[in-house]
Structure to design on (248 residues):
C-alpha cells in the first residue's frame, strides 16, 4: 500500500500501527513515511516513543522525519496523550487495568470445629490493581460480611492478598441474637487468564478461583453473660469458591 501511494489507504495503515505483530507495525510505519502521510505524524511520533520493539520505534521515527523534519520536532510536545496502544511483548505482564466489578460465591467451613455445618456465601465488590472492597451475605446462618483486601505483588493471573473486615451474624440457636466479629487473614486468587487491555476478554477469561483463610473473633454480642465465654473464642473459617470479574 505504501509503494502504491494510494491516499485512501492512509487510515487503514494508521490502524495497522496498533497491530499485535511488531513486524506489521514497523512495515505500516515505513509505508506511511513513503506516502508522506502528514495526518499520521502524531500516531507515528507516539509509536516512536512508546513501542517496546526497537525496530518499530526506529521505523516510526524515520517515517516522521521522512514526512517532515520540522513536524518531527514539533510533535515532541504533542505526544502526551498517546492514541496508539502498543501490543504487549510476548511473556510481558499486561499493563494494569482500572477499576472493575466482581461477583463471587463459595463454601465456608470452620477449620477449628470440623463438625460444624458448611455455610455458603455470595458477594460482590469493586477491584483496583492493589485494593478491593467487598460486601457479602452468608447463609443459611444469616451473616453480613464486609471486607477490604490488599493485593500483594499482583500478577496477571496469580494474586496473594491480605484481608480485614467485619461480620454481623445471627447464630443458629433458639435466641438468634446478633454478634459482631472482626475477621482478618489472607488468601490466594487464581485467574482470570489472558484478557489483556485493548481486547474484549473471552468468556472463560472473566472467571477466577480463590481460597481464603481468616481468623474470626466476636467483639460484641447481645447474648447472656453465660454464653459469652464460648462466643468470644476464635474461629478459623476457610472459604473456597469461584467468581467473575468485569472490567470497563
Amino acid at each position: 500500500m505504501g509503494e502504491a501511494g494510494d491516499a485512501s489507504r492512509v487510515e487503514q495503515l494508521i490502524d495497522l500501527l496498533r497491530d499485535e505483530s511488531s513486524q506489521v507495525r514497523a512495515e505500516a510505519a515505513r509505508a506511511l513515511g513513503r506516502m508522506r502521510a502528514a495526518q499520521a505524524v502524531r500516531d507515528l511520533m507516539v509509536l516512536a516513543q512508546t513501542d517496546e520493539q526497537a525496530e518499530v520505534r526506529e521505523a516510526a521515527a524515520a517515517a516522521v522525519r521522512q514526512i517532515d523534519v520540522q513536524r518531527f520536532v514539533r510533535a515532541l510536545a504533542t505526544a502526551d496523550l498517546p492514541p496508539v496502544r502498543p501490543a504487549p511483548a510476548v511473556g510481558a505482564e499486561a499493563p494494569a487495568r482500572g477499576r472493575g466489578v466482581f461477583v463471587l460465591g463459595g463454601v465456608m467451613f470452620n477449620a477449628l470445629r470440623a463438625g460444624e455445618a458448611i455455610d455458603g456465601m455470595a458477594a460482590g465488590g469493586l477491584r483496583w490493581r492493589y485494593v478491593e472492597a467487598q460486601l457479602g451475605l452468608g447463609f443459611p446462618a444469616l451473616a453480613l460480611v464486609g471486607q477490604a483486601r490488599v493485593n500483594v505483588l499482583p500478577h496477571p493471573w496469580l494474586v496473594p492478598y491480605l484481608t480485614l473486615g467485619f461480620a454481623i451474624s445471627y447464630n443458629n440457636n433458639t435466641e438468634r441474637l446478633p454478634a459482631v466479629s472482626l475477621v482478618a487473614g489472607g488468601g490466594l486468587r487464581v485467574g482470570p487468564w489472558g484478557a489483556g487491555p485493548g481486547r474484549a476478554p473471552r468468556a472463560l477469561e472473566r472467571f477466577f478461583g480463590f481460597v481464603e483463610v481468616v481468623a474470626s473473633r466476636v467483639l460484641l454480642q447481645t447474648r447472656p453473660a453465660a454464653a459469652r465465654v464460648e462466643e468470644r473464642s476464635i474461629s478459623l473459617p476457610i472459604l473456597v469458591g469461584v467468581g467473575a470479574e468485569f472490567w470497563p
